[in-house]
Amino acid sequence: MSMNDIRMALRQGGEAFLDLLFPEDGLCVHCHGESATEQGLCPACAQHLFPSAPPKCERCGRPLKNEGPLCGACQKSLPPFAGAAAPFLYRGLAGEMVREMKYHEKKRYANFLGDAMARCLQALEGPRPDVLVPVPLHRSRMRERGYNQAQWLAARVSLHCGAPVLPNALTRVRETDKQTRLETRAREKNVHDAFAVRKSRAVRGKCVWLIDDVLTTGATARNCARALLAGGAAQVWVLTATTVAWRPETGRLEDWEEA
Ligand SMILES: [Zn+2]
Ligand SMILES: [Zn+2]
């Protein structure tokens, strides 16, 4: 392919650009088997994905069992972000990819998930991002782990949509307990005021898309959005690789630990 073809493809917009990026070697990103589809997975692995399908909550984008417009969590208290989207449920293969990426440094999954997030963003009617802000890790956890998976995802989304990543726009002002062990209310308290905007000039007046691996209770996203809005962002939207569903029968979020 010549440079001209590439330029032409870029001009034609996202889809063509996505086709350029995948498949990188024609192998399945998960099992390394042959016959990967253009999205990077072989048909057998693709069966273990659970797309986040409508009907969805108009605000947080979580799939609902019945028509919305809002899930129980948003009815109880509207989040400060304008909207949220995710390509997959935090179950099956996508859940496994998130954990592998987060705890075992499997960057190839960040590429796969980031591509899916970019497609999701493209299909949305929401405003285009001016900047992408990954949810930061606390400095000590960043030191220990050496990378931030949300930053990997943001970099991949940025490749497609062209909006720059601002990895240092937000900072974690205090270390929070490991979220997975806490109940919803404890989580909300745990992350309250845990984030602050470090460079308000970079987000002032901007349409900011917050990037993370999973939207569970939404406590982290709410607190990041609050900090970004306080820092002058015009609006905040949330794009995650995975999300959990709202279960009306229990009035709770799907148990992400079970996924
Ligand atoms: Zn496969
Ligand atoms: Zn909702």
UniProtKB/TrEMBL annotation:
Pfam families: DZR_2 (PF18912). It comes from the Bacteria. Transmembrane segments: none annotated. CDD domains: PRTases_typeI. Residues 17-75 form the Double zinc ribbon domain. Belongs to the ComF/GntX family. This is ComF family protein.
